[in-house]
Design brief:
The protein is of the alpha+beta class. The chain has a single domain, classed as Archease, Possible Chaperone, Chain: A, domain 1. The protein has two helices and seven strands. It has a four-stranded antiparallel beta sheet with strand order 1-2-7-6, covered by helices on one side. β4 and β5 form a beta hairpin. α1 packs parallel to α2. The longest helix has 19 residues. It is globular and about 45 Å long. It starts with 15 loop residues before the first strand and ends with a strand.
């Protein structure tokens, strides 16, 4: 990972996300030094697909919890809850704070706070509508200090 912009001069993993090539859907990769940061970056990739997050004002706060038997199911549930929040309330987040990703009785749990506002035509550029997330090509890797997630958003 050194040399591709993910590891800084002090050997610390720099968080981020990018979009990979895919024939028909949105294929994203998110990473960070912790699972919390990797899952945060996955959410930011989703919101970047939906609109330009820089145009979203952090006026409202939403709490979100996701659960899964393993880290892949947790990623699926996390992204699915964000998609449902957009589909039902039009909620777009600018700031995403993942406070916890941890193993608990019965599996994994994620707790997060989102700051943003409802979608407003004219204010928020319309990006690509996301129908859902899929398990196809989904990966969760923990290699040393780097935590990397790959996932497909069904459009």
């Amino acid at each position: 990972m050194v040399g591709n912009g993910r590891v800084g001069s002090r050997g610390v993993v720099k968080p981020g996300h990018r979009f990979l090539e895919h024939m028909s859907d949105v294929y994203a990769e998110a990473w960070g030094p912790t699972l919390e940061e990797a899952y945060r970056q996955a959410a930011l990739a989703l919101y970047e697909t939906l609109t330009q997050p820089g145009k979203v004002e952090p006026r409202l706060e939403k709490r979100v919890e996701a659960r899964g038997e393993d880290l892949q199911e947790l990623l699926y549930d996390w992204l699915e809850k964000l998609i449902i929040l957009f589909d039902t309330e039009g909620f777009l987040a600018r700031d995403v704070e993942v406070e916890e990703v941890g193993k608990h009785e019965g599996g994994w749990r994620l707790k997060a706070t989102l700051r943003g506002e409802p979608y407003t035509p004219g204010k928020h550029p319309s990006g690509t509508h996301v129908k859902g997330v899929t398990y196809h090509l989904m990966e969760v890797k923990e290699q040393g200090e780097a935590k990397t997630l790959r996932f497909i958003l069904d459009i």
